[in-house]
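Reference record
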Amino acid sequence: MDVLVVQSHPSRTSYNEAILETVLSSLECLSNIKTTLIRLGKKNIDEGTVERKPAIVIFIYPTWWGGYPASLTNWIQEVFFKNTHLFKDVRTIVSITTHGSSKFINLLQGEWGRSYTENRLAKICNNSVKLEWISLYKIDRCTHNELENYLAKVKSDVTEFIAG
């Protein structure tokens, strides 16, 4: 099964990088998985092309100002929307994101990332595409244990979504 992982963050020393490492190690533990990694957000990082039709797409990004980082928005416009034939068989989209604000504030703002994924990206994919959302709120106020627990949740959820 082909899995496309798209990570968008300008720093390789961020918590977002720990999320990426957790996802990649989770995928390595599963059999028959071919992973394509696209890293966005900083010059000299692979801006990524998609050569195989993925069955699963995993987006890893911080929610900034209520939405996707600009590098992810650009990639979606330049790759996802211009190559819809590559994404028509996607059965699952997993969004893994962090927020500085609370879940309540995100609900008030309309959960832009979740809404956009559901209303724009999913429309291109398989008719029965499943959307999974793994979100950490108030990241700036999380304790070390809360951050570690989130990584454990990411590992468990990714394994379940892919294997199940």
